[in-house]
Specification:
mainly alpha; single chain; 0% strand
């Protein structure tokens, strides 16, 4: 006589990590390095604007303004 145990409960579902990965995949491709670069540039721009304002100046925004030094 052979005895076997079977589990008839609910099947396992994806956990929270899989849900997060699915949401991230739905957003599209965003390389981490590119996101980090955009954050750095935004930070440097804001810092430059703040420093220029403290010195009573305005930061140059265009190539023509920068070439006019």
């Amino acid at each position: 006589m052979q005895h076997s145990m079977t589990f008839t409960g609910p099947q396992p579902q994806a956990g929270p990590i899989e849900d997060i990965e699915r949401e991230d995949d739905a957003k599209g491709y965003e390389p981490e390095e590119l996101v980090d670069l955009h954050r750095l540039v935004a930070h440097l721009r804001l810092d430059g604007d703040r420093r220029a304002a403290c010195a009573g100046r305005q930061a140059r925004r265009t190539l023509a303004q920068m070439a006019g030094r």
